[in-house]
User: What shape does this take?
Amino acid sequence: MVVRGADVRARVSLKKKVARGRKARTGLREKPTLCRLTSMGERDGGVRLSFQTLKVLEAFLENPAGELSGAEVHKRTEIASGTLYPILLRLEGAGWFVSRWEDIDPASAGRPRRRLYHLTRNGLARTTEVFASFGRGVPA
Assistant: This one.
């Protein structure tokens, strides 16, 4: 197949028009969107209660005053870490949990510090309400 000069110029011209159209649509003044979410949680307590979220909350209801690390929650719920930690962050962001780093020296313990989570009063009250709404009794 022989490509003629006019055909090549037409293709190049078309590519330039398409490129100009893209620039016009995206614009140089627009900031690129890196993420659609501005935060992992909302302070108003509006938490999406998926089945996995309910399993996490149930793990904390076994001992509401106690603290659990992410690894301990993982063992109790068998939820994958890629699902578990976003749930913990979302619940913490909504004020249902607070967290802190474990007070140990990682070198002497021979392991990294753990992040410990525990239910807040608001979180306990909301969790109790959620499970009560399912007709399931929970310890207060």
